[in-house]
Design goal:
- By secondary structure, this protein is α/β, with parallel strands linked by helices.
- The protein is 59% helix and 8% strand.
- The protein contains twelve helices and five strands.
- The chain is globular.
- The mean pLDDT is 88.
- The structure holds zinc ion.
- Zinc ion binds next to helix 5 and helix 6.
């Protein structure tokens, strides 16, 4: 090769190295820009709605102000807890959109009637269904107790904080598992029970990578929860924080698991499967649940 060719080769090598180095930050920047667009669009949707707020949370609503106050107070408490657990405080005030009916919540995304969500995190914004749509009483004390125990606010805030910490750098199953784990610590609430009767096979780890397309979503959600539960219990919460930090620094999930736990992610998945298949009862008994509440970050 002549001098000119060598120069070209060298330039290509330098550019490739730069591209590899930039891949993480560029991906993160594109992701943040996309999230910003989605957030502006949601903010426009609620222009003209009434709002109540604290420095950390703003609730936009059109219905009963007493319910809005309950949502704000619960949001404030649960955001503080998730923020403490994940060691991450968002820079900006978080918008929570309070929807009066299931139809209105579904309408925000054009979802079909089969969709029955009580809350959604999307594009930097949390949406939540009013407890009036799912608690059949006018007794505000009952509504308040049920909303604190069963709303998905803590779950959606977990998605939001993880998203901002890592700029979207995580597998979907992990976000759903972590969100359910936080919800469990906040209220003891578990979405779906594990499959212990007859133990139909769990999804394989590679199947979990295609989380949103799995046929049995209840099983997929429960498996995601149990996977995070296992990692948190078996290896301790500090390692979980280490994993979040590694993801924040742009490492792939596999590399982050390797860095923090010293094993390949397939090995982690294998250990999880052995643990899960040996379960005869859910790992979180009623007594365990009450011990785990708030004090569970050991
Ligand atoms: Zn979720």
């Amino acid at each position: 090769m002549n001098m000119k060719t060598w120069t070209v080769v060298l330039i290509i090598l330098v550019l490739s190295a730069l591209a590899l180095r930039l891949a993480g930050p560029v991906r993160g920047a594109v992701y943040s820009a996309f999230r910003e667009v989605e957030m502006r669009s949601a903010t426009r949707d609620v222009a003209g709605w009434t709002t109540v707020s604290t420095p950390a949370v703003e609730v936009a609503f059109r219905g009963d102000p007493i319910i809005a106050a309950l949502v704000l107070e619960t949001a404030q408490e649960q955001l503080a807890q998730v923020s403490y657990d994940l060691r991450f405080v968002p820079e900006k005030r978080i918008l929570v959109i309070l929807h009066e009916t299931r139809e209105e919540l579904r309408g925000a995304f054009g979802w079909p009637e089969s969709e029955d969500a009580m809350g959604v995190y999307w594009g930097g914004v949390v949406r939540v269904l009013s407890p009036k749509a799912w608690v059949d009483t006018n007794d505000i004390d009952v509504i308040s107790a049920r909303f604190r125990a069963e709303s998905t606010l803590g779950h959606e805030f977990t998605h939001l904080l993880l998203d901002y910490m890592t700029q979207g750098n995580y597998p979907r199953w992990f976000s759903e598992g972590l969100a359910q784990y936080e919800e469990y610590l906040i209220s003891g609430h578990v979405w779906t029970e594990p499959y212990l009767d007859g133990k139909p096979p769990y999804y394989s780890y590679s199947e979990m990578a295609g989380f949103e397309n799995l046929d049995d979503q209840a099983k997929a959600y429960n498996q995601a929860f149990l996977m995070v539960y296992y990692m948190a219990r078996q290896y301790g919460w500090e390692k979980m924080i280490g994993l979040l930090n590694a993801l924040s620094s742009g490492q792939s999930f596999g590399a982050a698991v390797n860095t923090v736990y010293g094993i390949a992610e397939k090995e982690m998945a294998g250990r999880w499967t052995s643990w899960a298949e040996a379960l005869d009862v859910p790992p979180y008994s009623t007594e365990q649940r009450s011990r785990d509440l708030r004090g569970g970050m050991g």
